[in-house]
Amino acid sequence: MEYKPTIGLEIHAELKTRTKMFCDSKNDPDEPKPNVNICPICMAHPGTLPVINKEAVKHVLRVGTAVGGKLADFTEFDRKNYFYPDLPKGYQISQYKYPLISNGILANIELERIHLEEDTGRSAHETGDYSLVDFNRAGIPLMELVTKPVIETAQQAVFFAKELQLLLRYVGASDANMEKGEMRVEANVSVSQDQELGTKVEVKNLNSFKSVGRAIEYEIKRQSELLDKGEKVVQETRGWDENKGKTFSQRIKEESHDYRYFPDPDLPKLYISEIPEFLGESLKKELPELPWDRRERYKKEFDITDEDIEMYVQNEKFGNLFEGITKELLPDKKLIKLASNYIASDLRNLIGDDTSTFTDKTASFAKLMRMIQSGEISSRGAKDILAIMVSSGGEPEEIVKEMNLVQKSDEGELKGIIEKIIADKPQVVADFKAGKEKSLQFLIGQGMKETKGAANPSILKKLFLESLSKS
Ligand code: MN
Predict the structure, then answer these.
(1) Using CB atoms within 10 A as the burial measure, which of 125, 148, 174, 182 is most buried?
(2) What backbone torsions phi and psi does residue 270 show, to the nearest 5 degrees?
(3) pLDDT tens-digit profile of 366-386?
């Protein structure tokens, strides 16, 4: 039978701040040496007091502003009590009743809330009967975003997670690298036949966008098959095994009352609207252009492919480089389209993701594009010049002279080359005369080869046709 899937996402992201959420230990998730970025506060020694990290609060407020969420007037931190060795205090400081952000929309999906909490340490379960705990991560500021259960397909869920990752990177809140655990996605999946929601299962350990998609699809299928057999779906937390392509039961899901939430008496209440730099208006002014706005603007302003647009949106640095170049080429949209072809393929192959080496060359690049457009150089020649501009610098018009790459359109010089090719390849000439169109392409290719790519192919074609009709 067909069941209607309902999916909600819970996504955690480690925030980029200098120090941890409630103390001045360094926030460095890449620190390889265990237990160096710790202090009595994040190790929960008796008598220590937490202090709220303002920058972390601001990150969440910025994200909330970007998704059009409601900023809390009043907010507080709560203790979420549970016992686990990677949690030094025996509770996690989180937010329960009063999240920093409520509502908002991202990728057409309605949000429930965005709140701020702290990360746990990391346990390493060693072979043998012991585990090791590294507390470097304990107390790193963690943003938790919860969507409403309104997602209907795995693809939609994956798209949402990708858009959130982009947003976090654009506003500088997090690097949100899933493979590094900087962004962690959990999916609540249920299926039902009617309007009422089915029993939900929470899926964890999703370490890539691919896993998110696969795990949700697997769960929809597993739950549908259970219902088909007349069995019940158990409300539980399940892990995802990427190798087996299956979810597996981990534990029966806790209810929120199991956590004994209560407001943390060690932390002050926050009245957001009384803190000027936390006001929605001033946060809005600080926001950069958001990824979806950039996507729309490129679609409207330029006649470039969707693939190119997506590359510039996903890779903000290349987007900025593209914009720098368009400033030199406006208002010629044809020239911008040509430039985009070179930026998205040739230039990207040459410089990789490091655009910094090329940002001062936008004017030279624009000149190169004009030289192609005017027919002064061939596209083949342009690729060579670009490679030199990247490796040793220099202006395109000078490189052209040095390399003798000026497109050969001088018919006298080219005629000599053509006669030689015709004399050398009697069989190809015969084929052409017998009606084989491809033979002409081959001859033109020979001409390009002879001139090291400097000949103008359309002039070569014209000259070959003239010569061949005479002989
Ligand atoms: Mn959480």
Answers:
(1) 174
(2) -110, 130
(3) 999 999 988 888 888 899 899
Structure tokens, 212: 């998110």
**Res 153: pLDDT:** 97
pTM: 0.83
Q: Which tokens in the block code for residue 416? A: 């000599």
For residue 117, report the distance from its CA to the centre of ligand 1, in Å.
7
**In angstroms, what CA-CA distances link 320 with 24, 169, 185, 298?**
34, 14, 29, 12
Ligand 1 centre to CA of 12 (Å) is: 7
Q: b/e for 310-341, b at 16 or more Cβ within 10 A?
A: ebbbebbebbebbebbbebbeeeeebbbbbbb
Rg, the chain, Cα only: 31
- Find the 257 Cα to ligand 1 centroid distance in Å: 15
Per the CB < 8 A criterion, the answer to whether 422 and 467 are in contact is yes
pLDDT (0 to 100) of residue 463: 86
Neighbouring residues of 48: CB distance < 8 A, sequence distance ≥ 6: 40, 41
Is the per-residue pLDDT at 444 higher than 60?
yes
Q: What is the pLDDT of residue 460?
A: 84
Measured between its terminal Cα atoms, the distance across the chain in Å is 74
CA 4 to ligand 1 center in whole angstroms? 27
Expressed in angstroms and rounded, the spacing between residue 82 Cα and the centre of ligand 1 is 12
